[in-house]
């Protein structure tokens, strides 16, 4: 019995370490992949050469260093952060709503971000506020969509999670309709709008990472310790209440933090779907239904998934580049169908 318990306790940390190893491997491959190939050992030596007390000589020339630090490294780090945020948010939504089909775009975040970015792309070309306007507009739009959905769901009735889901669908549909109307009125900017909507990591840099860092940190600091409370919610509201937990407060906290994580990711990467559905389900099959394990493992596996998808997007039709949303859709759409079928069979 003690051996079994000890093994179950170690499941989460072991899978987290394994996911971290996969993430580091994917990031190393991602940094090296491209027209100007850089070997993994050269990447490691170059990074070590910037540690003062090691006295390691840089193996790269000036041009390769510029490619590494100004183009590839920020892109790979951005992919890891965006994937981690979307995966953790997806796992949190699924735990809160007890719905395996819940994802980070459930409560209008995607619709709001798309509308905010569209408005800036079309009407904000001559505006200079000293800040990256598209990420900021997408961020504000995502949070506005989430707040609108939550307000509508909380005032429309007493349906709880079901009301919030329906409100999210309604708000998303309305925001998408407004976005489509603007696009039809300004057809000359349609290509730039769709390029952002399909998602990508090549637009961002270190400045965008610093922009979302505070919001990402706050959302993760709130979400990761909430695994215990999500496990209690899985027992039902009555059982959670008997254990001293307020389900409404937990839901509000988790939804707010997950929406903040989604908004931070969307504002710098565009709309990249299916990450928040695919990764938590893979992780759940590996570590079991315990959210104290699912959340941290989803964090590292989500980062590895996004970095790997970006590698495919950059190399599969090189020298051209696929939108990363296309790659995640090719993986996520069949996976979504499998989840839907399994959910249907289990319900029957």
UniProtKB/TrEMBL annotation:
Q: Give the Gene Ontology MF terms in alphabetical order.
A: transmembrane transporter activity
**Location in the cell:** Cell membrane
Residue stretches spanning the membrane: 14-38, 73-93, 105-124, 131-152, 164-182, 209-230, 250-283, 295-316, 322-340
Q: What CDD domains does the record point to? A: TM_ABC_iron-siderophores_like
Pfam families listed in its UniProt record: FecCD
Q: What main location does UniProt list?
A: membrane
Q: Which GO terms describe its cellular component?
A: plasma membrane
InterPro entries noted in UniProt: ABC_BtuC-like, ABC_transptr_permease_BtuC
Provide a GO biological process annotation: siderophore-iron import into cell
Q: Give the membrane topology.
A: Multi-pass membrane protein
Protein family per UniProt: Belongs to the binding-protein-dependent transport system permease family. FecCD subfamily.
Query: What is the name of the protein in this document?
Result: ABC transporter permease
């Amino acid at each position: 019995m003690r051996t079994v318990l000890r093994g179950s306790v170690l499941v989460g940390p072991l899978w987290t370490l394994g996911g971290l190893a996969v993430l580091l491997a994917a990031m190393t491959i991602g940094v090296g992949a491209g027209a100007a190939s850089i070997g993994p050992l050269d990447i490691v030596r170059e990074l070590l050469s910037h540690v003062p007390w090691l006295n390691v000589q840089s193996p790269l020339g000036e041009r390769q260093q510029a490619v590494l630090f100004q183009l590839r490294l920020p892109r790979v780090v951005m992919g890891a952060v965006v994937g981690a945020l979307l995966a953790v948010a997806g796992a949190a939504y699924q735990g809160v709503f007890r719905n395996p089909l819940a994802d980070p775009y459930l409560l209008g975040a995607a619709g709001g971000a798309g509308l905010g970015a569209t408005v800036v792309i079309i009407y904000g070309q001559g505006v200079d506020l000293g800040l990256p306007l598209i990420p900021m507009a997408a961020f504000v739009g995502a949070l506005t969509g989430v707040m609108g959905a939550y307000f509508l769901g909380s005032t429309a009735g007493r349906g709880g999670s079901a009301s919030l889901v329906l409100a999210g669908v309604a708000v998303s549909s309305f925001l998408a309709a407004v976005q489509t109307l603007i696009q039809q009125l300004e057809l000359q900017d349609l290509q730039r709008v769709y390029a952002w909507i399909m998602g990508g990591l090549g637009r961002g840099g270190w400045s965008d990472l610093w922009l979302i860092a505070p919001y990402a940190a706050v959302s993760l600091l709130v979400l990761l310790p909430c695994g215990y409370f999500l496990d209690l919610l899985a027992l039902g509201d009555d059982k959670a209440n008997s254990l001293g937990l307020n389900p409404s407060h937990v839901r509000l906290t988790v939804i707010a933090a997950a929406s903040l994580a989604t908004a931070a990711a969307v504002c710098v990467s565009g709309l990249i779907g299916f990450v928040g559905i695919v990764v938590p389900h893979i992780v759940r099959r590996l570590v079991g239904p315990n959210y104290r394990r699912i959340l941290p493992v989803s964090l590292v596996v989500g980062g590895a998934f996004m970095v790997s998808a970006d590698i495919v997007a950059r190399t599969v039709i090189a020298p051209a580049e696929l939108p990363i949303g296309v790659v995640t859709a090719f993986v996520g759409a069949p996976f979504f169908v499998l989840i839907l079928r399994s959910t249907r069979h289990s319900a029957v």
